[in-house]
Amino acid sequence: MSGVIYQISCITTNLKYIGQATQFKYKNGKPYNYGASGRWNDHVATSHVRNTPLCRAIQQYGRDNFVVEVLETNLLELLDEREAHYIAERNTIHPHGYNVASHSRNRHRETSNLHVFYEGKVSNAVISPIRKDGELKSAYVYLTMLDGTRERIAFGQKEENTYEDTMEEVTDFLERLGCPSTVSTAYSTVLSEKYASKLAEFKEKEITSVRITSASSLIAVYIGTSEMTLSKEHKRICFGGKTISKEEAYEIAKQFVAELNISEKLINDSIKSSQQVTA
């Protein structure tokens, strides 16, 4: 089966969104045309209930202020890499565009060639299993790039996936990528259980700034959103405690920030800059 890579451009702002869609969908067992136009209609239909940069722009400027075009048609299993390519090439990550991640890893296929986009760019990977309702379910793979930046990829997003399915998907991706990897369970367990509700507060919100700093024996993360006009309104979340070293708290704080899935340009890590962390 095939699908498309499409681009949505706002005439007023000239900001763009890159996405992917399957050519056909099925209803009552019968196929119907979907593609870029069908996906665009979905974006418009959900724009009044979602708070993504694209949805806000649709609400602000109206659907007639956007142009939708197909960039290429390809096999479904090739779309992940092609989508990531166009997002990087056209610099459409918010605030430079309307994308909120470097790829979407859509769920309409069983296999993916996303590894192709990262080949030769990654120094190492950390696998962080994630719990849902107390049970291991999905996983994040944190990639440390050769240029020092970090990217996160989610695996096991299908509802029917077991944890075994997830790890098989992760293993296949990393084997194809060919980079060294380790498994970290300590921080992901803490995040999924203790900080799940805090992460949920920022779901679908436009995060405008994140500051990581030292706060006595703790690590503090200050998060600002588009709804906050003053810095004193920024949400403060602390990491650490009697049983966690400050160095460990810093690692947990960094993973929490990574799970917000925002551009590196919005993050001010004062600890990394001044090397404040002590064991």
From TrEMBL:
InterPro entries, alphabetized: GIY-YIG_endonuc, GIY-YIG_endonuc_sf
GIY-YIG domain sequence ranges: 2-104
Name of the protein in its database record: GIY-YIG domain-containing protein
